[in-house]
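Notes to self after the Tuesday call (sharing in case useful).
The group wants a holo model before anyone commits to mutagenesis around the pocket. I volunteered. Ligand is MRU. Logging inputs and output together so the record is complete.
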Amino acid sequence: MTDIQCMAIKASKDDRAFQILDQKLLPQTKKWITVSNTDEAYEAIRSMQVRGAPMIAVVGIFGCAYDVINRTHELEAARLDPLCVTKYTWKNDTFGTSNSFEEASEDDLVKYLTDYAVSALKHVTKSRPTAVNLGNDVEEALAMIEKSREPWQQIGNQLLDFAFDKMTNYQHADTEIGANGVEWTRKQFGNDPISVITICNTGSLASPGIGTAFGIVTCLHAAGLLKHVYILETRPYNQGSRLTAFEAMEKELPATLITDNMAAAIMQKDKCLKLAIVGADRITLHGDVANKIGTYQLAVLSRVHGLKFVVAAPESTIDFRNKDFSTVTIEERDSDEVTKINGQQIADPRIKAWNPSFDVTPPKYIDAIVTEKRVCAPADIPNVN
Ligand code: MRU
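Result:
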């Protein structure tokens, strides 16, 4: 396979860059932007032109892969025409055991490109600290590169193959999460259609396939089990109103947009509303779940109103290193995202705003965690096969 595409990413093995759909402009404008290296991927993730834990992971790895490929092409060009070496900024770098590019052996170039790839991958994981998928996938990529015996010309291609595989794996995982979610819902509520509520964007803009939590919503609709979906606006970044509402309309789902402070009221009003389905950016070994700010209050409200509360995420969202969030950074973003809407000042400019991007839902509020491999209680998270 030389080309791959999803709703938010287009890539080809024949190109020197890939494309991402600028999610900051949706739904009004569909603009694809070109990303050709680690720094551009880092910035697209940091600025949230691309977001959602699995999509961030794929974009980060694609950015590093094309970066290494572009550097490889520069090295190849310089080898063919030694006079042009002077035009490259890297000409004074160290190449393995050699201090000059001209004298570098094949092994020196392997070492140089391996180190280059490793530092690119380590750097891109810092773009957003809370979602763990990118960190987990980077660890796998690092292990692959460090034991690789490929010639230096192939290191970038090997990383690009890895990015393609990751994207395909996330697509398959989404499909399995959808199927597992439908099966679980049917067991809980039978064949009568139910209403569900969700937060943030967990659909095809957030994960390369049908999405995670919103993938389940889509599958419930396809199975005739969805009466209605309520979509929380998800201030301050409005992933719900800008992105999930758009995806719901594209997929022709029976959907209503509500602001975040309407969640309790709709739970009181709609007696068919029986299930909250949310995504996750990191699940720790004790089953604590970091997800979009507002998820925790949705969990507490769900318990009070007798709704089941389900978290949907691929296995790569599990942080097997941390029992809880005591040492994990919860990203805090610019206060402008709270005091302004679409760049328009709303609040008094003198007021300070707190803007944590995520909150942590304790396991006691979570009825089930649905992954591509299993549906389990939070306490069973460590027991993966
Ligand atoms: O800040 P975002 O938009 O990247 O946050 C995304 C979420 O919190 C999603 O719910 C989560 O990543 C799951 S995406 C499939």
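Two things stood out.
The chain has a mean pLDDT of 96.
The CA atoms of residues 45 and 56 lie 6 Å apart.
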